[in-house]
Design brief:
- It is an enzyme of class 1 (oxidoreductase).
- It comes from Streptomyces beijiangensis.
- Keywords: Flavoprotein, FMN, Monooxygenase, Oxidoreductase.
- By secondary structure, this protein is an alpha/beta fold.
- The protein folds into 2 domains: 325 residues, Luciferase-like domain (TIM Barrel, Alpha-Beta Barrel), CATH 3.20.20; 72 residues, no CATH class.
- The chain contains 15 helices and 14 strands.
- Helix 7 links the parallel strand 10 and strand 11.
- The two termini are 41 Å apart.
Length: 432
């Protein structure tokens, strides 16, 4: 009998986005430590692989004003995770840190410190930016050409690994000498080799260059795909790239970010999901989403009316601090065609087009679907993004996790102490 593939699960702290229903009275602070602690403890109770934090290096702006969700602040990820290391025992701790506006020595040191303090549970989600708006907060500004962001990130990861490898496994430090296009590092690293060898490296991105970067350098890829078939295509494509770098398919875990909605019946779950989407996409949020695509002030439009008949402005700087839309004309055309075919308003169109992959149904149906994705090669696991902060993970842990455990697809207890052991990743071979 073929052994069942094990599902990997992680919990994303939603933070400053439109997934969280902030109008719900159960939603709490996105900066108070108690919120982070509650979600992390729930994830550990559910035997999750890791807890995942996003990053923001500048408050976003919309029409020259600070974005509403950013005004309460965006705390620094590694600091939060160091605190969580003291109130958790096995849960992995993943920080999103930008490879464009940091330096290898300093970041490698902070991540190695977290790995030691947590007993080998640290992870780094590598992201990049060519955004001059964000760069204004840094000495070099937005100097980096978009085409160079992955070359810098790849050298950044390689340099960090050289630093992590500069101490022998038996505790002897050695000098580091790195001379590359983006970095020159000469000196001695201050932190001994960590309990899991290197912190786990996560990469977020679906572009071709992002996939190649993940195949070459990452342990986990954080992605998104909307259907089972799309997931299988992505999974096969990325796994096939690994051989060129001397890696096995099991060396890289593919974990899409997803949401979930549970109900006593399928109809109940669908009704709850629809109501959650209406709460997430308020009339105001619908216009904000439209303005991000069109690059125009559309405040005069009725959210319950038709889409604008004007074209987007591709040169607009109406929205700052968000990923720039590559082809707003194509998206506008797609939205118009959908709205016309289904008779949708602005708000209804935004609801239909901006939904992240969600698993909606009874706990049994959701467990079945999650398992199908993993067993049929569409994912290795999932990063769950609950719609309530911080209590939105509780019902999944209480109702879905036991069903996955019963079918032998998910652990009942942690069998190791490090994040690498949770993910089934080998400790990196020391490069002496």
């Amino acid at each position: 009998m073929t052994e069942k593939k094990q599902i990997h699960l992680a919990a994303h702290f939603p933070g400053v986005n439109s997934t969280t229903v902030w109008t719900d009275p159960r939603s709490r602070s996105q900066i108070d430590f108690s919120s982070f602690e509650q979600l992390a403890r729930t994830a550990e109770r559910g035997k999750f692989d890791f807890f995942f934090l996003a990053e923001g290096l500048r408050l976003r702006e919309h029409k020259g004003l600070i974005h509403d969700l950013d005004v309460v602040g965006r705390p620094e990820s590694i600091t939060v995770l160091n605190a969580l290391a003291a109130v958790t025992e096995r849960l992995g701790l993943a920080a999103t840190v930008n490879a464009t506006f940091n330096e290898p020595y300093e970041l490698a040191r902070r991540l190695a410190t977290l790995d030691h303090l947590s007993g080998g549970r640290a992870a780094w989600n590598v992201v990049t930016s060519s955004d001059a708006f964000t760069g204004e907060n840094f000495r070099r500004g937005g100097y980096l050409d978009r085409a160079d962001r992955y070359t810098r990130a790849a050298e950044f990861v390689d340099t960090a690994r050289e630093l992590w490898d500069s101490w022998t496994p038996d505790g002897a430090p050695r000098p580091v000498s790195h001379d590359g296009r983006h970095f020159s590092v000469r000196g001695e690293f201050t932190v001994p080799r960590s309990p899991q060898g290197h912190p786990v490296v996560i990469q977020a991105g679906d572009s071709d260059e992002g996939r190649e970067f993940a195949a070459a350098s990452a342990d986990v890829i954080f992605t998104r795909h909307g259907t089972l078939e799309a997931g299988r295509v992505f999974y096969a494509d990325v796994k096939a790239r690994l051989a060129a770098y001397g890696r096995e398919p099991s060396d890289l875990k593919i974990m899409p970010g997803v949401t979930f909605v549970l109900g006593d019946t399928a109809a109940d779950a669908q009704e709850r999901a629809a109501e959650i989407r209406r709460q997430q996409v308020s009339p105001q949020n619908a216009i904000l989403a439209l303005e991000q695509i069109w690059g125009r002030d559309l405040s005069a439009y009725d959210p319950d009316g038709p889409l604008p008949d004007i074209d987007p402005d591709p040169e607009s700087e109406l929205v700052q601090g968000r990923v720039k839309i590559a082809d707003p004309f194509a998206i506008a055309a797609k939205w118009r065609a959908l709205a016309e075919a289904k008779g949708l308003s602005i708000r209804q169109t935004v609801i239909e087009t901006t939904t992240r992959q969600s698993f909606v149904g009874t706990p049994q149906a959701v467990a079945d679907e999650l398992d199908e994705f993993v067993q049929t090669g569409a994912a290795d696991g999932f990063i769950l993004v609950p719609h309530l902060t911080p209590g939105g993970l509780d019902e999944f842990v209480d109702q879905v996790v036991p069903l996955l455990q019963e079918r032998g697809a998910f652990r009942t207890e942690y069998t190791g102490t490090t994040l690498r052991s949770h993910l089934g990743l080998a400790e990196p071979v020391w490069k002496g």
